[in-house]
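Fold this: PSA aminopeptidase
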Amino acid sequence: QARAGIISTVEVLKVMEAFVNEPNYTVWSDLSCNLGILGTLLSHTDFYEDIQVFVRDVFSPIGERLGWDPKPGEGHLDALLRGLVLGKLGKAGHKATLDEARRRFREHVEGKHLLSADLRSPVYVTVLKHGDSSTLDTMLKLHKQADMQEEKNRIERVLGAISQPELIQKVLTFALSEEVRPQDTVSVIGGVAGGSKQGRKAAWKFLRDNWEELYNRYQGGFLISRLIKV
């Protein structure tokens, strides 16, 4: 209804606030998706920081309840929910989540305590979103060292979270390098396009500047349409 212009988005946000005690992964996934769309729209306005505060307020109670480590008797959906919530809080700049993500990332890189598979994406996206060139270099090093394609793909999908313009360009150049399989290039460019307002503009320019190469690479396949869509 809000998207159709029938009711105010404020009403939607009020309904979302009522879900703070919700335990269900599917519901949180839907809330997260809708808030993501709203965040994208508001990134062009003065309200972007306000929506980040809203995300932190709505997601922090469930984040505190879940914590960082699995509890006895938890199911698969609880692990998914933990990853979703911590990633959302981390991207939104929730300080406690950011501090803990950085600590765990450091231990992971040093080989002291490897991150579990379900925590890697939220930790990677958090440290990148609030990271610098050394963070990006470390992620690219992890990508090079990864012996499983699943881990390479996981890293490729989150690289676009980096926010400085010159680092965004570095990620886009990496997308077309031999380090990335041709079928995975789209994930890297898509991650940049969805990562930030600056990323979206940079990815669109990159697509136009490299159109011939990309078109020749994917002509006739579904990946070209996916690329244009993202």
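Residues 48-66 form the longest helix (19 residues). Residues 157 and 191 are 6 Å apart (CA to CA).
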